[in-house]
From TrEMBL:
The keyword Cell division does not apply. Keywords: FAD, Flavoprotein, Mitochondrion, Oxidoreductase, Quinone, Transit peptide. This is Sulfide:quinone oxidoreductase, mitochondrial. GO terms for cellular component: mitochondrion. It catalyses: ubiquinone-10 + hydrogen sulfide + sulfite + 2 H(+) = ubiquinol-10 + thiosulfate; ubiquinone-10 + hydrogen sulfide + glutathione + H(+) = S-sulfanylglutathione + ubiquinol-10; a quinone + hydrogen sulfide + glutathione + H(+) = S-sulfanylglutathione + a quinol. It comes from Halocaridina rubra (Hawaiian red shrimp). It comes from the Eukaryota. Its EC number is 1.8.5.8.
Length: 442
């Protein structure tokens, strides 16, 4: 692709008088075309750019990403529990994006898939031969009445944002007595286990601090189940019953009243029924959606606003030169970084084949995983496919709370992410799983 740069420079110089003045009117239209354009430099975008920029060489791949920092979001569960700091979870974007890819530090604001172009918020048009969309999920905190104001007051936190995750641990430390409430919204979310992981961590924290008998712990979830996969849901029901945690299914947080420290939940089966509950601590998982910019491009998305890709090949249903990876896609599996890892290898193979004019043939099995941290030293490692069948790496019952799995989550997964996945080397545990099961697993 040939870069085009048009620079018009008009200089009018007055040579009259004792001083000379220069007037420049400059119109710069940067228009560059790339072999591969990647939108979003998060887990999926960064890994994809690493693979393809090393294969295609410098100047062929660009990543459009506005953020200064890249965060390893799964660590925020531990940050909220005081086991890691927010600083531990992030690195400057400049350090993690691949050196051979151009970084366009802008937001995508428009798509033109028929003409292979996107627009960024500084007015640039960027052309591409192939496009990978990895824009993640948008957090819609403002859809809960009173919540933005409530974040300004004590006791309200959310592990889902770097802005509010430190407030979770502050709320835990300052807890005296009363209700500790944990919510799960009425939308798809990333890491569906995270809203309850922090609840188990909090319960253990209260015990360690001698405050457990002063805390009433309640989980309010919009879902009709505690967890989507029965094997792990059964194990979690045991945990909540043993630890005397109250579960309220089909209840959605709709309002927070910071002045009276009350949370209002709607009964989704009887929408007129609202329940107002006092809180000493409230952990909010916000409603989420595909990013507005994507939702607004009807040619690219399904009815729910997610990028319309083939769930097995990750290729767009209507534009064969467009692929998707991660949370912003319509792939019907739980949205996690582990799923992104599993998709990486499929995307690498299928995009390569498409670049050679061939048909995609690699198939994504829907692998996803959720390390369900149940305290300061235990974890249930849920791993499953897009049909809800367990797809476990280890040859033992992973529905059991284990210390080993906790250390894998806390100590092994971060380096696997930073060094392996973001550099394009980690494509999920498929081969480890096969080896562990002596070749008998999928
Ligand atoms: C609290 C919490 C706990 C989690 N726990 C786990 C876990 O234990 N295990 C696990 O596997 N996963 C976990 N996850 C989920 C995991 O972090 C995500 O599923 C994963 O990051 C998704 O990758 P992605 O590339 O799709 O999106 P992201 O990594 O979110 O990246 C999206 C990128 O797109 C950029 N972007 C957005 N809009 C634009 C725009 N208009 N233009 C350009 N760029 C844009 C963003 O800045 C961002 O960098 C957790 C997440 C959270 C928040």
């Amino acid at each position: 692709m040939i870069p085009q740069k048009t620079v018009q420079l008009l200089a009018v110089q007055s040579l009259k008088g004792t001083s000379s003045k220069a007037f420049f009117s400059t119109t710069v239209t940067n228009h560059k075309d790339y072999k591969l354009l990647v939108l979003g430099g998060g887990a999926g975008g960064c890994a994809t750019a690493a693979k393809f920029s090393s294969k295609l060489g410098a100047g062929k791949v660009a990543v459009v990403e506005p953020a200064d920092m890249h965060y390893y979001q799964p660590m925020w569960t531990l940050v909220g529990g005081g086991m890691k700091t927010l600083e531990n979870s992030g690195k400057p974007m400049s350090q993690v994006l691949p050196k051979k890819a151009d970084w366009i530090k802008q937001k995508v604001v428009g798509f033109d898939p028929k003409n292979n172009k996107v627009t960024t918020d500084d007015g640039q048009e960027i052309g591409y031969e192939f496009l990978v969309i990895a824009l993640g999920l948008q957090l819609n905190y403002n859809q809960i009445k009173g919540l933005p104001e409530a974040f300004e007051t004590p006791g309200v936190g959310s592990n889902y944002s770097p802005l509010y995750v430190n407030k979770t641990f502050e709320s835990l430390k300052n807890f005296k007595e009363g209700n500790a409430l944990f919510s799960f919204p009425n939308t798809p979310v990333k890491c569906a286990g995270a809203p309850q992981k922090i609840m188990y961590i909090s319960e253990e924290y209260f015990r360690k601090q001698g405050k457990r008998d002063k805390a009433n712990i309640e989980y309010y979830t919009s879902l009709p189940v505690l967890f989507g996969i029965k094997k792990y849901a059964d194990a979690l029901w045991k945990v909540v019953n043993e630890r005397k945690i109250n579960i309220n299914l089909r209840h959605n947080l709709v309002e927070v009243k910071p002045d009276s420290r009350e949370a209002v939940f709607q009964n989704l089966d009887k929408p007129d029924e609202l329940r107002t509950v006092k809180y000493e601590m409230l952990h909010v998982t916000p409603p989420m959606s595909a990013p507005d910019v994507l939702k607004n491009c009807s040619a690219l998305v399904n009815e729910a606003g997610f990028l319309k890709v083939n769930k097995e090949t990750l290729q767009h249903e209507d534009f064969p030169n467009i692929f998707g990876i991660g949370d912003c896609t319509s792939v019907p599996t739980a949205k996690t970084a582990a799923a992104v890892a599993g998709q990486c290898g499929v995307l690498r193979k299928n995009l390569n084949l498409t670049m050679q004019g061939k048909k995609p043939e690699s198939i994504y099995d829907g692998y996803t995983s959720c390390p369900l941290v149940t305290g300061y030293s235990t974890c249930i490692l849920a791993e499953f496919d897009m049909n809800g069948n367990p797809l476990e790496t280890f040859p033992f019952n992973q529905a059991k709370e284990r210390r080993t799995m906790f250390h894998m989550k806390k100590d092994m997964m971060p380096p696997m992410y930073w060094l392996g996945m973001l550099n394009g080397y980690w494509e999920g545990p498929k081969y480890v799983r096969k080896a562990m099961h002596l070749g008998l697993s999928k």
